[in-house]
Amino acid sequence: MNDLRFAIRQFAKTPGVTATIILSLGLGIAAIATVLCWTRRLVTQPLPGVADQDRIVAFVSNQGGGCASLPDLRDIADTRDVFAGFIATMPTPVSLTVDRHTEWTDAQIVSANYFQFLGVHPILGRVFRPEEDRQPGGNPVAVISERLWRRRFAADPGVIGRSLELNRRQFTIVGVAPGDFDGTLSPAIYDVWVPLSMIWEARNQGHNFLTQRDARGWHNLGRLQPGVSLGQAQGAIRTLNARLAAAYPNTNREIRYQVVPLSRCPWGAQVLMGPVLRLLLAVTVGVLLIVAANVANLLLARAVRREKEIAVRIAAGATRAQLLRLLLTESLLLALAGGAVGILVSVWLVDTIPLLFEASMNLRLSFTLDPTTVGLATLVAIATGLLFGLAPAVHASRTDLAEALKAGARGSSPGRIHRRLRTWLVVSEVALALVLLVGAGLCVAGLRQARRVDLGLNPDGVLMAGLQIGMNGYTPDTGLPFYRALRERAAAIPGARDAALASWFPLGLAGCKGSGVIVEGRPRPPGEELTYEYAIVSPHYFSTLQIPFVAGRDFTDADDAAATSVAIVNEAFARRFWPGTNPLGRSFRTGGKPRTVVGVVKTGKYNRLDEAPDCFFYLPYLQGVPDLDLGICVRTEGDPAGSAPALRAAVQALDPNVELRQTMTLRTYTQAVLIPQRVASSLLTLIGGVALILAAMGVYAVIASAVTERTREFGVRVALGATRTGVIALVLRQALGLVGGGLLAGTVVTLALTRLLHAFLFGVSPFDPTIFGTVALLLLLTGLLACYLPARRATQISPIEALRAE
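Now predict its structure.
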């Protein structure tokens, strides 16, 4: 306790230095606490309101976008000695009507055990009963979110038993989920849950997903039994894969499931944000090391000034252990104060990441510092305190009594070991700053280059919107005439150049449908993956998106159910199956129907900017493909967003009950794939700037201290005729040695680490000499600028005053 009181008195004597140390530490702790919070919320614990997420896994297949079928999931669940159960979910937008007011909202179709599995308890009513997911169409019940309950039902406690309309069908509200629960595809938010027996009513299609083993459209989560490791679960799944392949060769011969932890689940933010957050976590550790080096430098300088005090303590009988305890107490007190400041700052910082996402995305990205994150940040602060406090404490505890008392009479001066340690600390700061700034520069260049990647289409000037007319009672027979009329009206709105319909648009966050492909006359090697993604499109789709044709023709309105079944493939598809030959007129089978190739288009980017060229094909919307979830896209002469009211009016003129969903420009839609690069480049640039400032502070502190220590030397030099320029050059040479050493060490480390940035770079070499040279020059100029004031002060030393000081 005495050590604590003494430490507080010591800090009060030098408030400026103390405040600098605490604020520096606060900055470092805030950065790492913020990224830890983001990582826990989006990657390791991505499901707010869900208990025991460490035991949750996902069953991911090698087809169907990784999703599973219900029969397969039930077979997996039968492995009860490994898995405690599973849930199946499927997202869908629904047309929600309450008190005659209709809006689009997002819902999840879920297995009846959904809420019990997740440990989510309703705040009102009940959750689904086991029997409510068995009889198709027989259980029109729904659980709603607390948000929807408050917004549309005015938080009425009597809401249980009331009706709401989903897609013009009556559902009874049986429960209200707690406000911190958003669903199981974070960070998307859902307001309605219905049992899987109501899949047709919720999606106007999909009965096959209840029974067919090859209908792999269910997202899923499982829970491991207590004591079962992930490795054991993976072994059990491998055994099950072989058994299912043998029992169901027609549907499971090529299917392979694997078990992945929740942090690697492919149906949430984990896959999208995991790599960038792991990168940022490493970067914030680097910033914290720079902070620790800066603080250690300040404490070393302080230790020199306290040598007489330490000597007196030793003379009075203090042991080395007591001195270490005192000095480490001071360091830990500073660290805890800095940690407290950092945690307070991070309360504000954690909510800054949503600024990097498009406002049109229906995402819930609110963050709070949970006790685990606060505890981790506190441990990091304590570890940092020990890190930066140990060297000064050991140095001070080894004070030579006689030398310190003699030095105290004429002013303390640091020894060789002390100066060498401070030098190495600054060199380390500059090296770490170089690593961070080069990483930031590469990510910024990668983002700039990513914006120039050839997408295989032109997203500029295109307005798009979702339509789900099945929600309005349309059937495939009545829906196709509606879509044909809508395309004609959309193409005729003022400023429109072309219009088209499609089941899916490239480079958004929505998954694409996949289908098995059999190419006639081509033997299939064992284990070959022949499931490829496809889109259902109308005529003029390729001209609207400006996807170039390589050969053949576009679809026409003559490609209807009475005509020969046709398809358009991309170049990668044609090269794979008909290399060196003309693919036009060739055929392949998909969905149980042969298709004749009538056109070949340029291979583009479909899901990610860094994906390798892959096979993709297109089917005509009029040819017996009953899809009522087509979207509309319109190419306009001017700003596409300005055509939204006219497009909405065209829809209303056909049917006043049909509403557009998620109207946006195609450019905005395709920006979703740049989220990791945008987050990485923005935050790395910010953190790199902080590292630059901290490195400059470290160089300044060392050079300023060196100038003070060499006061007598500079006085003698001036007395002997040294010029102002010569004195400045002498100081700058020392600074150049520090910065140059840091640049050399940092270059070696950077060359070893930048290859880890490959996921964020497009067409940019991780060893780009321009970026390395620019960053090195920036650090060099910053270091010289930081030395200007100490160098100038050295030229103003009076020889008489300097000699008198000695």
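The mean pLDDT is 84.
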